[in-house]
Specification:
Layout (H helix, E strand, L loop, with lengths): L1 H15 L5 E3 L2 H8 L5 E3 L21 E5 L8 H8 L5 E5 L6 H7 L7 E3 L5 H8 L4 E4 L5 H4 L4 H8 L4 E4 L2 H10 L2 E4 L4 H12 L3 H17 L3 H15 L1
Parallel strand pairs: 1-2, 3-4, 3-6, 4-5, 6-7, 7-8
Helix pairs in contact: 3-9, 7-10
Length: 240
């Protein structure tokens, strides 16, 4: 695999020098290609803010959290289940399992009785699910690609006015702490995840609402697709 990887990388680098421009998904990837081709830009996968309902009504929310997205082991599903085991925390779960065998493994977990699994959700159903919970979960494993990623789900939770519970990767931690819009946890430690979630959802509604508003404001100002759309159009217009 290492040999094939090096061959592909060398070929990719050779081709990249000849391209009119390169669009990457994150600043980290951009830095790599800038060394090869100066006409390189990052276009981040931020949410279209008008598609996400900002719901400031907390009267009917329960002590629950949500994870919406692809359900993989690398995205922390087992650790999430371990964290809510023997608690009254409810997990609203939306998305498809991959591989399919993972669904059976999760359903045999002792904490599955705390899960409200809703399968694939359309945009309206996502908005509904996020209006029922007190936090959104994005506790991915520390893989090389995840550590430097900008997960759209994190910004969707923020846009919905939800505090975020995220892996304590330096990049993610800087975003959450700078905007005071959630908490970071050691994604490998279910006990810590449990303790910090319990502390978060037992906070006053006023504190949770404040975090949610902070996250929404950050998305409105910076982490939204409109900012990226403008960058992309300017790139096409001026660079190629």
């Amino acid at each position: 695999r290492n040999t094939v990887s090096k061959i592909v990388e060398n070929y990719e680098n050779k081709i990249s020098k000849k391209l009119n421009g390169i669009i990457t998904a994150t600043p980290h990837i951009r830095e790599r290609f800038l060394k090869i081709n100066k006409t390189t830009i990052d276009i981040n996968n931020f949410p279209i803010i008008d598609e996400i309902e900002f719901n400031s009504n907390w009267e009917n929310r329960t002590n629950s959290i949500a994870y919406i997205g692809g359900i993989f082991k690398t995205r922390g599903i087992i650790e999430s289940l371990d964290a809510i085991e023997n608690t009254k925390i409810k997990l609203i779960l939306g998305g498809f399992f991959s591989p399919p065998e993972l669904e059976a493994e999760c359903k045999s977990h002792p904490a599955w009785s705390n899960v409200d699994y809703r399968g694939y959700l359309n945009r309206q159903q996502v908005n509904q699910a996020l209006s029922e919970v007190k936090a959104g979960m994005v506790i991915l494993e520390a893989t090389p690609s995840y550590i430097v990623s900008l997960p759209v789900k994190m910004f969707e939770y923020m846009a919905a006015g939800l505090p975020v519970v995220a892996s304590d990767f330096p990049l993610w931690k800087s975003i959450i702490e700078e905007n005071n819009c959630g908490i970071c946890v050691d994604q490998t430690n279910p006990e810590e995840i449990r303790e910090k979630i319990l502390q978060l959802i037992s906070s006053t509604d006023e504190k949770l609402i404040e975090m949610g508003k902070n996250g929404r404001k950050a998305v409105e100002v910076k982490y939204n697709w409109q900012t990226q759309e403008e960058k992309l159009i300017n790139f096409y217009t001026n660079s190629i």
